Amino acid sequence: MTAEGDKTLHQRIVSDIEGQIVSGAWPPGHRIPFELDLAEQYGCSRMTVNKALTQLANAGLIERRRKAGSYVAQPRAQSAVLDIHDIRDEVQSLGLPYGYGLIGQSRHKLKKGEGERLALEPGTPVLSVSACHSAGARPFCFEDRLINLAVVPEAADADFSAIAPGPWLIDRVPWSAAEHAIHAIGADEKVASALKILPGAPCLVVERRTWSGAVPITHVRLIYPGDRHSLVARFAPTDPGERVATV
Prior knowledge:
The chain is α+β, with helices and mostly antiparallel strands. It folds into 2 domains: 3-72, Arc Repressor Mutant, subunit A (Orthogonal Bundle), CATH 1.10.10.10; 77-232, Chorismate lyase-like (Chorismate lyase), CATH 3.40.1410. It is built from 7 helices and 10 strands. The chain has a 6-stranded antiparallel sheet. A two-stranded antiparallel sheet has the order 1-2. A two-stranded parallel sheet has the order 3-10. Strand 1 (62-65) and strand 2 form a beta hairpin. Helix 1 (3-22) packs across helix 3 (46-58) and helix 2 (35-42) packs across helix 3. It is elongated.
């Protein structure tokens, strides 16, 4: 086979496998045919197949496991760190159906240990909401939220079994500032049960506080399985004449 023919066949193999993955014919976890089988199917060398699979692995479409073969990669979500985004959009960007389920919703007065979450005095009326968002058949994100009822009293009567509190708040309460904190935890029993992972499994946590003027509106912990999520921030160089101090 000529070098040009080898190159064309390599591109065909990449295109064929990519088409099977994108169409959903080969779902996440599906085993890719072995190199020898693909080489026989396409009438080419094993080296040509290996180059094609390497290209697909570098693109994040497949995972290559030593002595076990190649598999369609699990979709890996990316969140924009500086945005307030809808989890539904995250899931749909992966080409998967979005699901949502309320776990618990209760009104109470802010407890001493919760004061730091909203920077409010203990005794302030708040609404606690916990829910799970899913991507296809798999849990995607556990949501643990406090809402300041002094600012959003109508939240006490909202039906968060029908709509997630995030988009509900965005539609009703103008916010002027937000703060993100990102860290890792081991899943406790409640989180592990919701996300269907083992207790102690690593999770990525995005904590967000939102204000209207100087008044806190809500604090939310969005907890993701650590092996299926990443965070992305895009930024530009600061003009030396407009530098600001950061802490």
